[in-house]
Amino acid sequence: PTTPLRTPTLARDPAAGWSTTLTGLGSVTANATDVPPGTQGTQTIAITSPTPADQVILTNYFDGTPGISFVQLNGNHVLSFKAKGVYGNMSVAVNLKRYGGAVFLNQTVHLTNDWATYNLSFSGNENGSSVGTVQLTFTVNGPNVVNIDDVSLTQTNSDPTNQTAFRDPVVNALKQLNP
Questions:
Q1: Cα–Cα distance between 17 and 59 in angstroms, integer?
Q2: CA-CA distance, 49 to 58, in Å (whole number)?
Q3: What is d(CA 123, CA 77) in angstroms, rounded to the nearest whole number?
Q4: How confident is the model over 5-13, as a mean pLDDT?
C-alpha cells in the first residue's frame, strides 16, 4: 500500500487520514513554502516539537478489518519517505508493526537540513495467518522540527511478471478465480 502524506493540488490538512497525538506545544501543520525537489505536491507536513517536553506522534493504520487480514507482509519491503530536518535534533523515530504480531521497523532516522529520500528496508515473514491492524508511526521528540512528504510502503521482491498496479496475492487470487 502507498500512503501519501501530502495533497498534490488542494490546500488542506496534509495529515488528513493520519492520527496525531500532541504533547505539550507539539503541532502538525501544512508547509507550502519548502517542498522536496521533483515532487508533484504543493505542500508537505511540518511536525514541530519546540521544547524537550514536547512530542508529536503521526500514525497511520491499515489492514484493520477485525478477524481478517488482507495484507500479509511477507518478503522484502521498503518504507520510503522524504524528509528534512529544520531545527533541533533533526530526527524522527519510525515504527512499523502489526498489533499482536511482528515489529517490522523500529529505528530513529537522523535527518539532514536538505531534503532527502529515506529508504528503510525490512523482511516480513507473515504466512497468511497474521491478523491485526498494521500501524506506522513517525514520532518527533523535542526540541525538533521536521518536514515529511511522500510516504510509501512497497514490496521489493514482487513477481517480475506482475506488471499490474496490484500486489502479487491479488493477481494470484484473480488467476485462480479466472474471472
A1: 9
A2: 12
A3: 6
A4: 50
* Measured torsion, CA atoms of residues 172, 174, 178, 179, in degrees rounded to the nearest 10: -170
pLDDT at 24: 97
Q: In 3D, which of 151, 143, 139, 150 has the Cα closest to residue 35?
A: 150
Q: What angle do CA 62, 63, 66 make, to 5 degrees?
A: 125
Per residue in 26-49, pLDDT (tens digit) is 999 999 999 999 888 889 999 999
pLDDT greater at residue 168 or residue 105: 105
CB contact burial 101-110 (16+ within 10 A = b; e otherwise)? beebbeeebe
Return all residues near 166 (Cβ < 8 A) that are at least 6 apart.
174
Mean pLDDT of the chain, nearest integer: 89
> Which residue do the cell numbers 504466512 mark?
127
- What does each C-alpha distance from 141 to 47, 50, 55 come to in angstroms? 10, 9, 5
